[in-house]
Amino acid sequence: MSTNQEFDCVVIGAGVQGSFTAYQLAKHKQKTLLLEQFILPHTRGSSHGQTRIIRKAYDEDFYVNMMDESYELWAQLEREAGVKLYRQTGLLVMGPEKSHYYEQVKNTLQRNKVPMVTLTSDNFNQHIPHVKLTEGNGAVVEVTAGVLYADRALKAVQAQFQKLGGVIRDNEMVMDIKPGPIVTVSTSAGVYRAKRVVITAGPWANRLLAHTGLQLPLEVVKINVCYWKEKVPGSYDVRRRFPCFILTESQESKEHIYGLPSNEYPGLVKICYHTGSKADPDQRDQQTDRSDINILQRCVKHCFPGLIPEPAVVESCLYTLTPDRHFVLDCHPTYSNIVIGAGFSGHGFKFGPIMGKLLCELSLGEVPSYDLSPFRIRRFQAKSKSAL
Ligand SMILES: Cc1cc2nc3c(=O)[nH]c(=O)nc-3n(C[C@H](O)[C@H](O)[C@H](O)COP(=O)(O)OP(=O)(O)OC[C@H]3O[C@@H](n4cnc5c(N)ncnc54)[C@H](O)[C@@H]3O)c2cc1C
Ligand SMILES: O=C(O)[C@@H]1CCCC=N1
């Protein structure tokens, strides 16, 4: 039992956001402790799995603006750790040509001069074989988008944090937080005192925030991560330059369907639905709803004729959704030395290095490098309840 050890900062939760925050704090010479409830690495939160998409294809400029630096910081971590974390594949965005969202994404890419190629129904299959472009859909390829190697990235950033003198204690669940000028954090194995705390607890955020009298409007959903088998091995392979893709909406669904080329499991393509059914993070396996899989099956039949329309592997992962799907990056409304990074809404991985930088800046009381107004807690004011 460790008692009353003192730190400049304690970061709670060693997913992608907490790990990058701890690393940034250590770079700023802060004596930092990173606490994780499970033994690392684990598969029970939101950051596990081999791959994630990295892209600038968004409908808002503020995400595109952050991505330039995010790409640079990913490359910096690759150099520091001596590992490959990013593979350029391009991102195919398909959607109803006349829909507001598809048009917005295309315009945002053009306005921000992101390298892209517009495909037509005539040349589509020359560039993208084995995919059916639905009539009325447009298609663009964002050239510099690609795949991030997620598990490898977590291992790398945690190792760099430790090299900088940071301390990781896994298998230690935070049970209580006592706010104050010095915050007391009690875990299943000890008690720590810190000048500052950062809460990056993913799907468990509200459980921890309850100790500070705050609840955010977060909804946790379980995503069935489906892998689909190629009929002809190699048809959708990363080595044949098959891109990541997003289908913004379709006759099957109004939500995005997205996928990555076959890569981590030979012959299997990852295709997921961008929402799921409500789940308790500690009881996720009890959530057995398969309606997302049914939607995906119809989409695979319709658009991916080279795949067997029955998932070969189904894994699970959690999203923590905010009502507007934008992140929460802010100081606690009552305790300025408690900083919150939450609600990454199923699209936060690519921003990990920037989220780490911003959460570190908030924690140190510095002016944030980007405008954080879309991410502030006050946007929920009418709905959030501060019991204090
Ligand atoms: C299927 C899927 C696909 C996705 N695809 C993409 C993509 O292509 N591109 C992209 O950019 N993003 C993607 N995302 C989103 C991205 O992965 C998440 O936004 C990101 O991983 C969230 O990280 P986090 O650190 O907030 O949460 P988590 O990874 O869940 O980390 C929180 C950590 O806090 C720990 N913790 C919680 N409570 C306690 C406690 N009391 N004590 C100690 N530790 C605690 C948890 O165990 C956990 O390790 C995807 C997500 C999923 C699920
Ligand atoms: O963030 C991403 O790129 C993925 C794909 C689109 C939907 C959510 N996650």
Write down the overall mean pLDDT: 96
Please report the total strand number as a whole number.
22
CATH topology name of the largest domain, in short, is FAD/NAD(P)-binding domain
Envelope shape: globular
Family: Belongs to the MSOX/MTOX family.
Function: Metabolizes sarcosine, L-pipecolic acid and L-proline.
Protein name: Peroxisomal sarcosine oxidase
Catalytic activity: sarcosine + O2 + H2O = formaldehyde + glycine + H2O2; L-pipecolate + O2 = L-1-piperideine-6-carboxylate + H2O2 + H(+)
What would your notes on this structure say?
It catalyses: sarcosine + O2 + H2O = formaldehyde + glycine + H2O2; L-pipecolate + O2 = L-1-piperideine-6-carboxylate + H2O2 + H(+). Its EC number is 1.5.3.1, 1.5.3.7. InterPro entries: FAD-dep_OxRdtase (IPR006076), FAD/NAD-bd_sf (IPR036188), MTOX (IPR045170). There is one protein chain. With 388 residues, the chain is α+β, with helices and mostly antiparallel strands. The protein folds into 2 domains: 5-47 and 151-218 and 324-380, FAD/NAD(P)-binding domain (3-Layer(bba) Sandwich); 91-143 and 219-321, 2-Layer Sandwich (D-Amino Acid Oxidase, Chain A, domain 2), CATH 3.30.9. 24% of the residues lie in helices and 31% in strands. It has 8 helices and 22 strands. A hairpin with a 4-residue loop joins strand 10 and strand 11 (183-187). Helix 1 (16-27) crosses helix 8 and helix 2 packs across helix 5. Residues 384-388 have low confidence and may be disordered. The structure holds flavin-adenine dinucleotide and ligand LYRWXNCF.
